[in-house]
Amino acid sequence: MDRILISACLLGRPVRYDGSGKRLADSRIDRWQAEGRLVPVCPELLGELTVPRPAAEIVGGSGEDVLAGTARVLAATGEDVTAAFLAGAEAALDLARKTGCGRALLIDRSPSCGSLSIYDGTFSGRRIVGSGVVAALLAAHGIDVYADHEIDRLAEAMANSPLREPYAG
Ligand code: SF4
């Protein structure tokens, strides 16, 4: 459990809905990457969504509610993409387990990866407290989830986590 599942867009990979990345410039990311601790994932691509794709938001609740079947994920076009988000979340959890990730560093506000806040489902830019679908699923399975702006807290947790074997995936 010495590895970190990380949102691929935080490494600058162009996987976001608009084809951009959102690199988190931080020397600890660079060090963890060099040590082979990072396991990049884009759950929405694992759910077979494409780049680019319409922006999506959770409507009627949070990621936990989507997992419980009481909220949906809708694209800005109105398309229901709940099934793709659920499939991607399950695939991300599977990857985390197979690669020994006990922690995850995920970009906040995303309907998948958000862990502290998400948009409220009105596509108006308003935020609410809550998790995205992946963050909720990982947390429910005992993986410690950190938002991108909680990297200091993650670094403290990693200080006593010796690496057994680098991830070469
Ligand atoms: Fe980044 Fe997560 Fe959205 Fe993929 S699903 S683009 S990794 S925030």
Largest sheet, spatial ordering of strands: 2-1-5-8
Mean pLDDT: 96
Shape descriptor: globular
**Biggest beta sheet attributes:** 4 strands, parallel
User: In which range does the helix fraction lie?
Assistant: 25-40%
The small molecules bound here are: iron/sulfur cluster
Number of domain modules: 1
Q: Report, as a whole number of angstroms, the end-to-end distance.
A: 16 Å
Work out the number of β strands. Answer: 8
Q: Note the run of SSEs as H and E.
A: EHEHEHEHEEEHEH
Q: State the low-pLDDT regions, or none.
A: none
User: Beta-sheet strand percentage?
Assistant: 15-25%
This entry's quaternary arrangement is single chain
In DSSP terms, counting alpha (H) and pi (I) runs of 4 or more, how many helices? 6
List the helices and strands and how they pair.
Layout: E1 3-7, H1 27-35, E2 38-41, H2 43-46, E3 56-59, H3 63-68, E4 72-75, H4 82-99, E5 101-106, E6 117-119, E7 127-129, H5 133-140, E8 144-147, H6 151-158
Parallel strand pairs: 1-2, 1-5, 5-8
Antiparallel strand pairs: 3-4, 6-7
Helix pairs in contact: 4-5
This protein binds iron/sulfur cluster (SF4).
What does this structure look like?
- The chain has a four-stranded parallel β-sheet with strand order 2-1-5-8, sandwiched between helices.
- It is α/β, with parallel strands linked by helices and 169 residues long.
- It has one domain.
- The longest helix is centred in the middle third of the chain and has 18 residues, at 82-99.
- It is globular, with a radius of gyration of 15 Å.
- The model has no long low-confidence stretch (mean pLDDT 96).
- It has six helices and eight strands; from the N terminus they run βαβαβαβαβββαβα.
- The protein binds iron/sulfur cluster.
- Iron/sulfur cluster binds next to helix 2.
